[in-house]
Amino acid sequence: MSENNEGTKLTNVIRDLCIDNLDKEAIWEKVAEDYNSRDDLSIWDDLSPVARNHHLQTHIREKLLKQGKTPCNTEELVNLYTYMYMLMHIDAFNVAKCKTDNYTFNSIYKVNHEEVLLVDFGCGSGTIPLALAEGNKSEEGFNINYLGIDIQPRMLNLAKNFLESSLFSESLNVTIDEDIIRADNNIEPKKIIFVFSYLFSQPGVNKDLVKFVERIKSIMKSYATAEEFYFMYINIDYKGEIYKEGEKNKQAWTEFLKLLRSKNMVSGSLGDYIKKLDYSFRKFNNLDGNNIDKFGGTRPVYTKIFRLY
Ligand SMILES: C[S@@+](CC[C@H](N)C(=O)[O-])C[C@H]1O[C@@H](n2cnc3c(N)ncnc32)[C@H](O)[C@@H]1O
Fold it and tell me: Most CB contacts within 10 A, which of 1, 25, 180, 284?
């Protein structure tokens, strides 16, 4: 495990706009209270700083965020989610974007990326734009053509703050309208990539599958200049949420793919197979927002990118 206490341009922005706003005292108090209420003789005050920090991370991940499944409907939960998962999902995307099978995200996006509209379903606080901005080598802020959709308005608020930060081009026009955030660079898109990153395992996602397909179709229609359309799946597994319909267990991703097929939106030769990749990831190691760890171990990420018609 290596440690970087300096932070980078990206992690400093996340610290300033998100981690610094957390109610750290209240979180520490709650963790200590929880610890002392266990049927165990050891007490919080006797723990080492490392052990305390371990309990803090576990408390945030398991109790407050329920492994990313808690609806982030308060500013505090949005900030906690971003603190815990943003760097991890950026690192998963960074691996996914260059290694999927038929196409790669990079090969579609990198040439004239200003002319590619990214439509990010379940965008959260803006993981995908932040990942792309971090990879931006120019002195100028990153110029993105972006539309994010999320059911949690507070997620969109933080995404807006990020898109208006120094990481992005000052000329972007960033607006929120209902469940959509738009960062408009005033360039008519030639291609559209629909990204679904860690959305398909969200509780209740199955209820919106038909709506997702309709929205994709309507967005495809509304950009008359766009000639190529792609879909990108990124998730912890290859099935998505498991839910019951009648007596049957169904898988959100499998059902969604069936819907796309039934509407002839994918090539007849598209298979179900989804590639599994491994990624190593960074995370904030404590609530000061400077202390970033790169973990030696890896996590799986399942990803697929294909054309839509
Ligand atoms: C696990 S987070 C992933 C966020 C981001 N895409 C990432 O990769 O870090 C899932 C996001 O999907 C949103 N979400 C959950 N169900 C949704 C739905 N039915 N429609 C749109 N967004 C949804 C949640 O509010 C949350 O922001």
Answer: 284
- Nearest C-alpha to atom 26 of ligand 1 is from which residue? 124
Q: Which is the closest atom of ligand 1 to the Cα of 205?
A: 19
Supply 133's token pair: 């901005």
Can you tell me which atom of ligand 1 is nearest the CA of 196? 6
The contacts of residue 94 (CB under 8 Å, 6+ apart) are: 131, 135, 279
Distance CA 166, CA 13 (A): 8
| CA 240 / ligand 1 centre spacing (Å) | 13
**Mean pLDDT of successive 10-residue segments in the chain (309 residues)?**
70 96 96 91 92 94 96 98 97 92 90 96 98 94 98 98 98 98 98 98 98 98 96 97 96 98 96 94 89 84 96
Cβ neighbours of residue 62 closer than 8 Å, sequence gap 6 or more? none
Ligand 1 centroid distance, CA of 211 (Å): 15
Q: Which two tokens stand for residue 39?
A: 């049927």
Dist. CA 53–CA 296, nearest whole Å: 19
Residues found in the chain: 309
> Please, which residues have CB within 8 angstroms of residue 273's CB and are 6 or more apart in sequence?
304
How close is the Cα of 155 to the center of ligand 1, in Å?
A: 9
Ligand 1 neighbours, Cβ below 6 Å, are 68, 72, 85, 89, 122-124, 127, 149-152, 155, 197-199, 202, 205, 208
Look at ligand 1, atom 19, and give the residue with the nearest C-alpha: 205
In the chain, % of residues over pLDDT 70: 98
